[in-house]
Amino acid sequence: RWRSDGRALRKLPVHMGLVVTEEEPSYADMASLVVWCMAVGISYVSVYDHNGIFKRNNSRLMDEILKQQQELLGLDCSKYAMEFANQDQDQVLNCQSTLKVLSPEDGKADIVKAAQDFCQLVAQQQRTHTDLDVNVLDNLLSSTNGFPDPDLVLKFGPVDSTLGFLPWHIRLTEIISLPSHLNISYEDFFSALHHYAACEQRWGK
């Protein structure tokens, strides 16, 4: 069912952000969302909460994802392998999807560090100030190295804000708000994908 659902959509995000603004994040529910992303064919997934709980407890989230991958996908599990791209270590499984777990330090703080790194390059005369453009800054940002900008963000919770999720990268991102990630159903998830597939993106025009 998963693959056919993905193929049935007019367009599918290449990179999906899952942003939790609630105070009590659920590892099991977030793992379900990640596995559903993998199963319908989304190549890159970012998980974010504004308190950095998922990132601090990264191994717990990964264990839950692997468990649910086995439960939900069963014998097909090998077709839906995932690479866990963490800053500290990479756990690579013959991957079709790549996951990053992010926190606020990967947002504004990462932009500040990128700016400092560029200034250092200018001071060392390896760059000039006229070299700075969008692509150069993108390459200096470590939090999303190798990731395209998110096409779609699912924001969970009552807060009408993404609370610092990748502020540089979501200029053209479609953001869909859902009441909660707690006990979310596959139908709710797929309905959001359907909404994204039907929307006309004008790219700021």
Automatic annotation (TrEMBL):
Cellular component terms (Gene Ontology): dehydrodolichyl diphosphate synthase complex; endoplasmic reticulum membrane
EC number: 2.5.1.87
Superkingdom of source: Eukaryota
InterPro entries reported in the protein's UniProt record: Nus1/NgBR (IPR038887), UPP_synth-like (IPR001441), UPP_synth-like_sf (IPR036424)
EC top class, as a word: transferase
Keywords noted in UniProt: Angiogenesis, Developmental protein, Differentiation, Endoplasmic reticulum, Glycoprotein, Lipid metabolism, Magnesium, Membrane, Receptor, Transferase, Transmembrane, Transmembrane helix
Catalytic reaction list: n isopentenyl diphosphate + (2E,6E)-farnesyl diphosphate = a di-trans,poly-cis-polyprenyl diphosphate + n diphosphate
Gene Ontology MF: a single term: ditrans,polycis-polyprenyl diphosphate synthase [(2E,6E)-farnesyl diphosphate specific] activity
Cofactor(s) it depends on: Mg(2+)
Compartments reported by the entry: Endoplasmic reticulum membrane
Gene Ontology biological-process entries: angiogenesis; cell differentiation; lipid metabolic process; regulation of intracellular cholesterol transport
Pathway stated in the Swiss-Prot or TrEMBL entry: Protein modification; protein glycosylation; Lipid metabolism
Membrane topology annotation: Multi-pass membrane protein
Assembly notes: The active dehydrodolichyl diphosphate synthase complex is a heterotetramer composed of a dimer of heterodimer of DHDDS and NUS1. Interacts with NPC2.
Family: Belongs to the UPP synthase family.
Function according to Swiss-Prot or TrEMBL: With DHDDS, forms the dehydrodolichyl diphosphate synthase (DDS) complex, an essential component of the dolichol monophosphate (Dol-P) biosynthetic machinery. Both subunits contribute to enzymatic activity, i.e. condensation of multiple copies of isopentenyl pyrophosphate (IPP) to farnesyl pyrophosphate (FPP) to produce dehydrodolichyl diphosphate (Dedol-PP), a precursor of dolichol phosphate which is utilized as a sugar carrier in protein glycosylation in the endoplasmic reticulum (ER). Synthesizes long-chain polyprenols, mostly of C95 and C100 chain length.
Protein name as catalogued: Dehydrodolichyl diphosphate synthase complex subunit NUS1
Organism of origin: Centropus bengalensis
